[in-house]
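Hi support team,

I submitted a single chain yesterday and got back a structure, but I'm not sure I'm reading the token output correctly. Could someone confirm the output below corresponds to the sequence I sent? I've pasted both exactly as they appear in my results page.

Thanks,
R.
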Amino acid sequence: MADTRGRVKVETSPKRIRAYCGGHLVADTFRPVLVWEIPYYPTIYVPLGDVRAKLEANGATDHSPSRGDATLYDLVVDGRVVTAAASRYLDSPVPELRDLVKIRFDAMDEWLEEDEPIYVHPRDPYKRVDILGSSRHVEVRVDGVTVADSHQPRILFETSLPPRYYVPLSDVRLDLLRPSDTRTHCPYKGTASYWTLDTGKGVHEDVVWIYRSPLPESQKITGLACFYNEKVDIILDGEPRERPRSPFS
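Hi R., thanks for writing in. Yes, this is the structure output for that exact sequence:
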């Protein structure tokens, strides 16, 4: 099933999806429905019959211009109440949604695709990540200062984002980096830690990151540094590249 009404795409996934809260199974379905409420990634909706927890309407509603009015529910599992953790679009103009339950991703302790955990948000089946070894010459300059220079990058190509150039730490001016407390999480790559860059001419917060223990499918970038090419100057094989526009600009 695939459908698009306005800004909303709806598609049934062949993956088994399970959600847990407090160690208890909340939902278990072999027919999850992915709904693109925003363009960047889908939201998981579950058939009502595959929800194992009790749903109690809490009197609140939420309006979506494309999906209609949602009734909000508290989710009760083994005596624990998770407030407004679920919603239903009982009279949605998108008929596929009317018998489904949306369970807030961040309200659950664990989500599984088949038998593997997923983090941050559901994965988009139309998003691909390719990591390729390369011998291209990558230079990174900030404030006119060369902060990285490598002939052995790993280039990460991710759907809808600019290429990312991951380089060995030995090719980076580590003396210009200050550890940051910032951490970000990606469902495809894992958890990244950051550095702030101080060129002596300016301080640039959180423009450099590293995945020290990435998820299995992204192991090829383990221990490599990457710069936001939206915020630094990249020279590729001697040719300056324009700074791309992206959600991270």
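A quick pointer for reading it: Residues 69 and 190 are 34 Å apart (CA to CA). Let us know if anything else looks off.

Best,
Support desk
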